[in-house]
Amino acid sequence: NALNNVNVISCDNPRDEALAAANIVSKLVCEENYRFKDFILVARNADNYQNNILRQCELNKIFVLQHIPT
Q: Most buried among 9, 21, 36, 38, using CB within 10 Å?
């Protein structure tokens, strides 16, 4: 069942959410043989992540540092 593979996380801010998601993805790719294309990240309000260019660059950097394609 695909729903067994859903993780829901909530953090204080978009940066912490991106960091938590990146850590989960990295761990599953490295340890459980998942592929990056096996993941989708969904946000309730994408504006929280896209409105501020500097914030978006910072969030992308989190994924780049974890070697996760963006």
A: 21
Report whether 36 contacts 29 (CB < 8 A).
Answer: yes
Give residue-wise pLDDT tens across range 1-55: 455 678 888 888 878 888 888 899 999 999 998 999 988 887 777 776 666 655 6
Do the beta carbons of residue 49 and residue 43 sit within 8 Å? yes
C-alpha pair distances (Å), 23 with each of 1, 12, 14, 47, 62: 23, 16, 14, 22, 9
Cα distance between residue 24 and residue 55, in whole Å = 21
